[in-house]
Amino acid sequence: MCRLNVRAAVLPAVSLLFVAGCSQEPAGKPQQASRPVVTAAGAVRSQDGEALFRQFCASCHPDGGNVSDPRRSLRGTVLRSNHITTADDIVRIMRNPISRMIRFDAATLPDRDAVAIAEYVLTTFK
Ligand code: HEC
Questions:
Q1: Residue 56 shares a structural domain with residue 30
Q2: Is the pTM of this model over 0.85?
Q3: What is the tally of structural domains in the chain?
Q4: Is the CB of 108 under 6 A from ligand 1?
Q5: What residue's CA is closest to ligand 1, atom 39?
């Protein structure tokens, strides 16, 4: 539980920079920090993709795997063997999933966020 709190602090930490206060903010609603967060040492930009991935994808693709179809994981070798090599390819699948994956339209995930997730996937799961 303690670990969850530390992780939940990662996102609000950014806004705290602007608030310039460091009192203990009430945790409020931690943005669905239900998954382990890999260390937050990365740049803010890559963190966006990571946070979005955790929010929208990790339930079915924990650690880049695939809970319901292991042959369709997000690992680089698997993606390449399925001819998925660019961020565009991944965004296309979000917009038009192959079969059982839920669909993410632009209202749910604007292009900018979809691309951030796709780049996170491509650079993270080898
Ligand atoms: C409800 C579960 C679920 C969620 C949530 C989900 N996926 Fe999937 N994903 C699947 C399944 C199942 C497949 C296998 C193909 C199919 O059935 O559509 C898949 C396949 C894929 C593939 C193709 C992998 C390959 O090797 O061919 C990509 C890329 C992908 N998902 C990306 C994402 C991204 C990015 C997100 C988050 C925006 C996401 N998925 C969210 C279930 C999910």
A1: no
A2: no
A3: 2
A4: no
A5: 57
